[in-house]
DNA sequence: TGAACATATGAACAGTTATTCATACGTTTA
DNA sequence: TAAACGTATGAATAACTGTTCATATGTTCA
């Protein structure tokens, strides 16, 4: 009885973003695909915090936190400012919050 | 001159979702963190399609597509219906579109 | 300048993941 | 029932990822 299914390959291809964009998108989501990074972002939802404190709060090593912050920084998801020996990290913008909320909605149903 | 930074660990902890939720969230994003799966989802934005055709369209093996669809199915992101030998996949709901759009916004800036 | 502290980073390792190959399962039709 | 076709799946492999450890970099203060 068949509902209508796609057979117009060209149409589908035309609607699909270019490879570079798809790659970037996957890379972005990869970043959210790790609990340590998600937790770091949740911390930063509340405000800025230094590396040491984030490590303590999450119960992971300073090195691990620093490595993950590097990735978040690379994706422009977080900012940092130095104050003496200490570096304080904060969210780069409100997009992060939106993305996380988007995913949360899917979970809660 | 130091802006206000977080030092109330308890407050931050209270605002953080429980570990199970954070785990689920990361698992969800992991799924979007792969170009093959993202491409499959983009195909399904246009309508339903059978496994064979998706494989051809993306230029990957039938097996690879099937493996990835299994993951998408497991996360309830796609549905399927069987029609004879053929299985047609489609999006489970509109959340997927929202999540992808959310990420896309961050990319384009 | 040297010691102490906070952070960053490279290398190594263990765990995870996507693809491929071979094959099993399910359905149709001759 | 047997053959043909579409799909699913287990095992194996190569590539990738997160953490740890050791150490470098950068900053402050005595």
Report on this structure.
Two copies of one chain form a homodimer. Helices cover 61% and strands 13% of the residues of chain A. With 109 residues, the first copy, chain A, is an alpha+beta fold. Chain A has a three-stranded antiparallel β-sheet. In chain A, helix 4 crosses helix 5. The longest helix of chain A has 14 residues, at 19-32. The mean pLDDT of chain A is 94. At the A-B interface, helix 1, helix 2, helix 3, strand 1 and helix 4 of A face helix 1, helix 2, helix 3, strand 1 and helix 4 of B. The structure holds a DNA duplex (30 and 30 nucleotides).
Entry keywords:
alpha+beta, DNA-binding, 3-stranded antiparallel β-sheet, about 110 residues, homodimer
Characterize this entry briefly.
By secondary structure, chain A is α+β, with helices and mostly antiparallel strands. The first copy, chain A, is 61% helix and 13% strand. The first copy, chain A, has a three-stranded antiparallel sheet.
Average predicted local confidence, pLDDT of chain A: 94
Helices of chain A, by number, come to 6
The major β-sheet of chain A equals: 3 strands, antiparallel
Report the β-strand fraction of chain A as a percent range: 5-15%
Distance between the termini of chain A: 31 Å
For the largest interface, the chains and their residue counts are: A-B, 54 and 54 residues
The low-pLDDT segments of chain A are: none
Radius of gyration of chain A: 19 Å
Helix content of chain A: 55-70%
What's the number of extended β-strand segments of chain A? 3
Strand order, largest beta sheet of chain A: 1-3-2
